[in-house]
Amino acid sequence: MNTITHRPGKPSPNPDTTATMRAIVQEHYGSSDTWRLTEIDHPEIEAHEVLVQVDAAGLDRGTWHLMTGRPYLMRIMGFGLRSPKNRVPGLAVAGTVAAVGADVSRFEVGDEVFGVSRGAFAEYAAAREDKLAPKPSTLTFEQAAAVPVSATTAFQGLRLGRIAAGQKVLIIGASGGVGTYAVQLAKASGTEVTGVCSTAKADLVRSLGADHVIDYATEDATEGSRRYDLILDIAGNASLRHLRRALNPTGNLVIVGGESKGTLTGGFGRSLRAPLVSIFVRPRLTMLTSSEHHADLVPLTDLIDAGRLTPSIDQTYRLDQAPEAMRQLEAGTARGKICITIASPPPPRRTTLLSASRSTTGSGMVPSSKTIASASITALNSASVTSAVAEEHAANAKTIAPRPTAARCLLMMSRLQARTIVASVSRPRTDDPGRRS
Ligand SMILES: NC(=O)c1ccc[n+]([C@@H]2O[C@H](COP(=O)([O-])OP(=O)(O)OC[C@H]3O[C@@H](n4cnc5c(N)ncnc54)[C@H](OP(=O)(O)O)[C@@H]3O)[C@@H](O)[C@H]2O)c1
């Protein structure tokens, strides 16, 4: 049952949580032609969840994987064998809290939030409270919805790669959803950044602060004499051999993604091999399994509100245009992120009002200042961060031990396979909280 608390002075939400809502619904795996706009019931929230009245949603590759059911490995991992377990697509969300579960302590009705939900392409979405944070005050809902999945991935990838000021960093896939954040975060960390993208988007990557831009159509970034301390490999599927060659002996490779036509493991093959190869060779090769979490949304918010990180949005579509939005993502023409706005009709008349006795703690945990922003950069830079937030970061980051014993290797491999396939997709509703979303 959905529970509602209301903080005085906050805008009153639509209290009718038994009403229907407009949502994109998908009954079978397939292309965006399987998406249709329809009326369904509001989602029920669990005790630790929040009901978000959605203003905007972000589109990302993870949503594409969940739509197509590819690579197939993810189907047997709990996302639905023949059809998606969650019928409403969409992960990244920005909106206003409309109801809270009984165990929610961070948020109250009326709070403006952003984060990751299940079913963001709808007027209402359920989200775990630990996957939300207060919306950056300087962003619109649309901009905020562009942040949670992609910026978190960039942030965690650079941290896993042990980014430090003064390094030379190569970002392959610099003009995409993840890359546009990675370039800005790497620059804010005091590194020299080389971004790889297509000719058409070189100006964008430069405008984000990249010192050098390589056009992948005319130049192989891993060829030549340039050596990097950190390579964030988001796209392109360069071979591990080539990537290693472009690294300094003490450097770090972080494989984030890369699409391929393979249907069983998709573009994840390199991600699976990298930690294994890393047992035997230097430099350190790792793969990222990102996990959107409140603890990383907060420092990102600091950076945004301090003006050091800005979402790069190419296009915004209406909810009924979601299939069109997905076609643009597939075409690869977006410069940065694609968003979807959900314009709600006037609230329906109240039929049921649920009340709650939950005490309120407030959520004001994100003071915006340059001091906080530089602390966030420090947290990103430092390999041995000690602050509470940074410790939480470390707990959430799935770092691959560089030299595991041979006996642990096989066990690791199977766990990695599981984690990697779901790295850019959402957690099925029945997952336990320890797994990534
Ligand atoms: N590991 C994780 O936890 C995790 C989390 C989120 C996402 N991911 C994965 O990360 C990948 C990228 O996500 P995204 O949202 O950034 O995708 P995106 O917005 O579609 O961006 C793709 C980027 O790849 C570039 N690119 C395309 N072909 C390339 C090539 N041959 N060589 C070099 N660069 C090339 C594109 O450049 P142009 O547009 O200029 O052509 C663009 O910058 C996906 O595979 C996704 O599944 C992984």
Write the layout of secondary structure elements.
Blueprint: E1 20-26, E2 35-41, E3 49-59, H1 61-68, E4 92-100, E5 112-116, E6 124-128, E7 132-134, H2 141-145, H3 148-160, E8 168-172, H4 177-188, E9 192-197, H5 202-207, E10 212-215, E11 228-233, H6 240-245, E12 247-255, H7 269-280, E13 284-287, H8 294-305, E14 313-318, H9 322-331, E15 337-341, H10 370-381, H11 388-396, H12 406-421
Parallel strand pairs: 8-9, 8-11, 9-10, 11-12, 12-13, 14-15
Antiparallel strand pairs: 1-2, 3-4, 3-6, 3-15, 4-5, 5-7
Helix pairs in contact: 3-4, 7-12, 8-10
The structure holds NADP nicotinamide-adenine-dinucleotide phosphate.
Verbal overview:
The structure is a single chain. The chain is an alpha/beta fold and 437 residues long. The protein has 2 domains: 20-147 and 311-341, Quinone Oxidoreductase, Chain A, domain 1; 150-309 and 369-425, Rossmann fold (3-Layer(aba) Sandwich), CATH 3.40.50. The protein is built from 12 helices and 15 strands. The protein has helices at 61-68, 141-145, 148-160, 177-188, 202-207, 240-245, 269-280, 294-305, 322-331, 370-381, 388-396, 406-421; strands at 20-26, 35-41, 49-59, 92-100, 112-116, 124-128, 132-134, 168-172, 192-197, 212-215, 228-233, 247-255, 284-287, 313-318, 337-341. The strands form 3 sheets. Strands 3, 4, 5, 6, 7, 14 and 15 form a 7-stranded mixed beta sheet that branches. Strands 10-9-8-11-12-13 form a 6-stranded parallel beta sheet, sandwiched between helices. A two-stranded antiparallel ribbon has the order 1-2. Strand 14 (313-318), helix 9 (322-331) and strand 15 (337-341) form a beta-alpha-beta unit. The radius of gyration is 21 Å and the shape is globular. The relative contact order is 0.17. The site of NADP nicotinamide-adenine-dinucleotide phosphate has 32 residues, from helix 1, helix 3, helix 4 and strand 9. NADP nicotinamide-adenine-dinucleotide phosphate (NAP) binds at residues 60-62, 150, 153, 172-179, 196-198, 201, 216, 234-236, 256-259, 267, 288-290, 332, 423-424.
